[in-house]
Automatic annotation (TrEMBL):
This is Ribosome-binding ATPase YchF. HAMAP family: YchF_OLA1_ATPase. The gene is ychF. Belongs to the TRAFAC class OBG-HflX-like GTPase superfamily. OBG GTPase family. YchF/OLA1 subfamily. Keywords: ATP-binding, Magnesium, Metal-binding, Nucleotide-binding. Residues 275-358 form the TGS domain. PANTHER family: OBG GTPASE FAMILY, OBG-TYPE G DOMAIN-CONTAINING PROTEIN. The keyword Nucleus does not apply. ATPase that binds to both the 70S ribosome and the 50S ribosomal subunit in a nucleotide-independent manner. It comes from Pseudokineococcus lusitanus.
């Protein structure tokens, strides 16, 4: 499964957040045979459409899509030089598909900040710098070999140009995620190097209650990390919320003026940062969300349910969620002509409710 790797400086609330992420009864109920590793937090992607579908079909249960987070032990200044966790840290982060940095915004005199003051911009910079330095090392090591291979016509000169372009971006102190496209660097050519800063980023601003309501400050921080997505939450509150019954949790959220928990928001932003989307199936047994990559075709989507579905794919019967809800039943949607028959080239849209036809 695709994962987001959680990083951040010490004492910013990573463990607090991660403990909340890993406490999940929903998953235990739906994936009883899943072996969940201790450093992996699997959270359901909130999707109100599933309950609506379950109502229409009389489903026994709903099965949400999930998002996985890997806890990557603390980063410190000098990590790229083998100080702190050094190479082990970098190896773990390399395996993640996206990077989720927890940034401390809350102030609490009882919780020491490693650099002695709470400064989100500086913390973001510290972590980015370590990752930038690690990528520079990787790229600079690749240059001599590539130059030789290009001379010997064993490598594409475009790859060497991309490496040099990437080095220039990083030397300005910019991550590749933020700077590569603008600089015309084709990251696809560099995929074999598994560069850390070319991964998509998302930021969790760990804020206290007052900070959650400070819209001007939030806008500032959002602008600071753009184009990366971000979420504002209070990790301490989130870890309390997961201990409560759903009704009590909703009440506690409402008392702070929120409609959705920070973890739910994080699941959503994380899911889209990974470039994922869902399609839906529904029946008496279950209403379920299936995870696919954006841009996948109907047969690829069918393959997520079962490889036989992809191999023997004939067609997909597709109705958009809104059309199905308007009609009130699959039969009525059909008689209104809202159920489309799609072939193997159909590109799935988010919220498609699908039934596949296939040969076995
Ligand atoms: P980590 O080192 O990044 O894993 O940080 P921890 O999750 O261990 O948190 C460090 C300390 O900060 C702990 O004492 C937490 O209870 C506290 N803490 C975490 N999140 C918050 C928060 O949102 N507000 C406040 N006031 N304290 C927090």
């Amino acid at each position: 499964a695709l994962t987001l790797g959680i990083v951040g400086l010490p004492n910013v609330g990573k463990s607090t957040l991660f403990n909340a992420l890993t406490r999940n009864d929903v998953l235990a109920a739906n994936y009883p045979f899943a072996t969940i590793e201790p450093n992996v937090g699997v959270v359901p992607l909130p999707d109100r459409r599933l309950d609506v579908l379950a109502g229409i079909s009389g489903s026994e249960k709903v099965v949400p899509a999930t998002v996985s987070f890997v806890d990557i032990a603390g980063i410190v200044k000098g990590a790229s030089e083998g100080e702190g966790l050094g190479n082990q840290f970098l190896a773990t982060i390399r395996e993640a598909d996206a990077i989720c940095q927890v940034v401390r915004v809350f102030s609490d005199p009882d919780v020491v900040h490693v650099d002695g003051r709470v400064d989100p911009a500086a913390d973001i910079d510290t972590v980015a710098t370590e990752l930038v330095l690690a990528d520079l090392q990787t790229l600079e090591k690749a240059v001599p070999r590539l130059e030789k291979d290009v001379k010997g016509k064993r490598a594409d000169p475009a790859v060497l140009a991309a490496v040099q372009g990437a080095i220039a971006v990083l030397e300005r102190g910019t991550t590749l995620f933020q700077g590569a496209t603008a600089a015309g660097v084709d990251l696809a050519l560099l995929s074999e190097l598994t560069l850390l800063t070319s991964k998509p980023f998302v930021y969790v601003f760990n804020t206290d209650e007052a900070g959650l309501g400070d819209t001007a400050r939030r806008a500032e921080l959002e602008a600071l990390v753009a184009p990366a997505g971000c979420v504002f939450l209070d990790a301490a509150v989130e870890s309390e919320l997961v201990e409560l019954e759903p009704e009590d949790a909703a009440e506690m959220l409402a008392s702070t003026g929120q409609t959705e928990s920070g973890l739910d928001q994080l699941a959503r932003v994380g899911f889209s940062t990974l470039g994922l989307q869902t399609y839906l199936t529904t029946g008496p047994k279950e209403s379920r969300a299936w995870t696919i990559r954006r841009g996948w075709t109907a047969p690829q989507a069918a393959g997520v349910i079962h490889t036989d579905f992809q191999r023997g794919f004939i067609k997909a019967e597709v109705v958009s969620f809104d059309d199905l809800v308007d009609a009130g039943s699959h039969a009525e949607a059909k008689s209104r002509g809202k159920v489309r028959i799609e072939g193997k080239d159909y590109v799935m849209a988010d919220g498609d409710v699908v039934e596949f036809r296939f040969n076995v």
